[in-house]
Specification:
Shape: globular
Order of helices and strands: HHHHEEEEEEEEEH
Structural class: alpha/beta
Number of helices: 5
Largest sheet: 5 strands, mixed
Radius of gyration: 26 Å
């Protein structure tokens, strides 16, 4: 009996080299189109997080002021090593336990001691080696730079306060004012602030001492974590437990290509391509910096948040850093 043979299985045809290359090219094109969108979405989320954290810092300052009727100083004692604003606001950022562990500062001397213990004292390192998430901006993905290896691994953070329109020696004629023709116009945060140990010479700033207006005066901004040169050395930008590292100055604009200044070359690592230019100089001067494309976020003294672009008029930027010049200029 004659049987019809079963149909032959169709021959499978493989991709040719040309087809494979076309598919790879299409995938590469799609990745090239999608990657910027993904990166932009990630940065938008990071920037939103940074803004929210800056708002919380502004609220902490408002609550500190409500409790004391003045703002904390940028730092305490001439060298800025008895504590900074960052320590002062810990109780208002749900960090009361950290604040209570710190010896010295607002509570005077350590038990059994006749001297004030500073940020690097062994008694205070449990506090100053703690990384505070509320003070880190996720846009600055620098995990390896959040600690200072040759300073007992003390932590660094991303938010700094407004110390005026010149430099650290802001109110010393010949050193901070005038500076290349720029006269110091007051600031919300001053050095060598009032505390029980330094009550006579300590200074305070009240909101009533800001006649320029709270909505026209910057309170805080962002900074980039300094890139540590090696695993055993540090860049102290973002070293906010210490006075000189806890502030920004508005002499230069946001994300300025003009180098930041530290009094010792070993305190900073010159990285201009990474928005971290730096030189050794006689006085400390640090610009506001961020990892956000085009500008920085700032918090004004009324708690409002602004994104200030890198090309802001320098006169407006400096005016927003002063408290008592009566300028009508505004970041708006």
């Amino acid at each position: 009996m004659f049987r019809t043979p079963p149909p032959a299985s169709p021959t499978r045809r493989a991709f040719t080299l040309v087809e494979l290359l076309v598919v790879i090219a299409i995938i590469g094109t799609l990745v090239g189109l999608l990657l910027p969108a993904v990166q932009a979405a990630r940065e938008a989320a990071n920037r939103s997080s940074c803004v929210n954290k800056l708002k919380q810092i502004g609220l902490a300052f408002q609550n500190f002021n409500s409790s004391t009727n003045y703002l904390p100083a940028s730092d305490y004692n001439a060298g800025g090593d008895w504590g900074t604003w960052q320590l002062a606001v810990l109780p208002f950022m749900e960090q009361q336990q950290l604040y209570d562990r710190y010896q010295g500062f607002m509570r005077g001397t350590a038990p059994g001691s006749t001297t004030v213990t500073n940020y690097s004292h062994v008694n205070n390192r449990p506090v100053t080696t703690t990384l505070i998430p509320q003070l880190l901006c996720p846009s600055d993905a620098s995990d390896e730079n959040t600690r200072s290896p040759n300073f007992f691994n003390i932590t660094k953070h991303n938010y700094v306060v407004n110390a005026g329109n010149t430099n650290r020696m802001q109110d010393f004629p010949g050193r901070g004012t005038p500076l290349n023709g720029v006269i110091y116009g007051g600031a919300p945060f001053v050095r060598n602030g009032k505390n029980p140990v330094n009550n006579v010479n300590g200074r305070v700033v009240k909101f009533s001492n800001i006649p320029d207006g709270l909505s026209k005066t910057m309170m805080a901004s962002e900074t980039c974590l300094g890139i540590n040169p090696t695993v055993t050395t540090s860049d102290l930008r973002g070293f906010t437990w210490w006075g000189p590292g806890a502030v920004f100055h508005a002499f230069n604009g946001p994300n300025s290509p003009t180098p930041d200044q530290f009094q010792f070359a070993s305190y900073c690592n010159n990285q201009p391509a990474k928005n971290l230019p730096c030189i050794q100089a006689s006085e400390v001067q640090l610009a506001a910096r961020s990892r956000h494309p085009g500008g920085v976020n700032v918090c004004n003294c009324d708690g409002s948040i602004r994104f200030v672009t890198n090309d802001v008029d320098i006169a407006i930027w400096r005016a927003a850093a002063t408290t008592e010049f009566g300028e009508s200029l505004s970041l708006d």
